[in-house]
Amino acid sequence: MNIQEITSNVNPKIKEVAALLEKSKERRKSSLFVVEGLREVNACISNNYEIASIFFNNQIISTTDIDNLCLPKDVKVFSTSTNAYSKIAYRENTEGIIAVVKEKKLSLDNIKLGKKWDQPLILVVESVEKPGNLGALLRTCDACGVDAVLVCDPLTDLYNPNLIRSSLGGIFTNQVVACSNEQALEWLQKHNINIYTAQLQDSKWYYQTDMVSPTAIVMGTESTGLTDFWRTASNGKIKIPMLGELDSLNVSVSAAVLCYEAVRQRCNK
C-alpha cells in the first residue's frame, strides 16, 4: 500500500474534503461524499461502495488498521498530520479515519425484496427535513430487517455528514431510494404492498393492523404530518396511543414503534 503524507492544513486535498463536508453542491457535482469512522468505512466496503481515497491520522489509528480494510490497490491513502486532519474531522471523538466515497444511486427498479422476511416490509418517509431524524430511522430499519426505505421528496441530502453519523452506517446497510411520492406509490402498488399511513385522524391502533402481509409504513413530518396524497392512497390508517398531554412523538421514535410491531407480528405468526 502506497501511503502519501500530508502535513499542511491548506493542502489542496484537505480543502477538497472540507468542501465535500460543507457543501451539498460539491457532493452533487462530484458524486462524492465523506465518511468518518472505522465502522462506517467498513460498512461502505462490505456494501460495495467504491472508496476513492482514505485520510488517516497515525496518532489515532495505526497503519495496521488501514491494512485490515483490504482496500483495492487503486485507492489513494494519505497519512495526515494532526493539524491537517483536524480540518476534515467532524466528530468530537474522531476515530482518526476518513474516507471519500463514490455515490451509489439505487433506483426503485433495483430494490431486492426478501432481505429478512417472506413478505416485504417497507418504510416510506415523506419530506423529512432533519438529517439526524433520517439517520435514526435508518438505524431502526437496519435493526428490523426492513427491505427498503423510500425517501419521498427529500428535503435533506442523503449523504449529509450528520445523516451518515447519526445512522451509524445505516445509510449503507439499507436499500435507500430517493424518489417522488408518485413514483413510490406506483412501485408499492405494482408489488401489491399494503400502505399504512401513520396519522391521528380516522385511524385504528397500530397493533390492530395486520403487518404480516406485505406492508409499507408511511411517515410524515413532525410539524405537518402526511400530505393528502398519502392519506388518500392508504389502505389503512394507524395511530400510536398518546396518553399524555402532547400529541406528537419524534418521527424516528414513532417509526421504531411501528416497525417493531411488524417484527413482533412476523416473529409470532
Structure commentary:
The N and C termini lie far apart (51 Å). With 269 residues, the chain is α/β, with parallel strands linked by helices. Helix 6 links the parallel strand 6 and strand 7. Helix content is 35%, strand content 21%. A 7-stranded parallel beta sheet has the order 8-7-6-11-9-12-10, with helices on both faces. It folds into 2 domains: 100 residues, 2-Layer Sandwich (60s Ribosomal Protein L30, Chain: A); 161 residues, Alpha/beta knot (3-Layer(aba) Sandwich), CATH 3.40.1280. The longest helix has 18 residues. Helix 1 packs across helix 2 and helix 6 runs parallel beside helix 7. It has 11 helices and 12 strands.
Q: Which oligomeric state applies? A: single chain
Number of strands: 12
Shape: elongated
Question: Strand order, biggest sheet?
Answer: 8-7-6-11-9-12-10
What do we call the CATH topology of the largest domain?
Alpha/beta knot
Give helix and strand order, one letter per element, not per position: EHHEHEHEHEEHEHHEHEEEHEH
| Integer average pLDDT | 93
The helix content is 25-40%
Report the total helices: 11
At the fourth level of CATH, the homologous superfamily of the largest domain is SPOUT methyltransferase, trefoil knot domain
The appropriate CATH architecture of the largest domain is 3-Layer(aba) Sandwich
Structural class: alpha/beta
Largest β sheet strand count, sense and barrel closure? 7 strands, parallel
What are the segments in which pLDDT stays under 50 over at least 5 consecutive residues? Answer: none
What distance separates the N and C termini? 51 Å
Compute the number of structural domains: 2
CATH domain class of the largest domain = Alpha Beta
Report the C-alpha radius of gyration, rounded.
20 Å
Q: Percent of residues in beta strands?
A: 15-25%
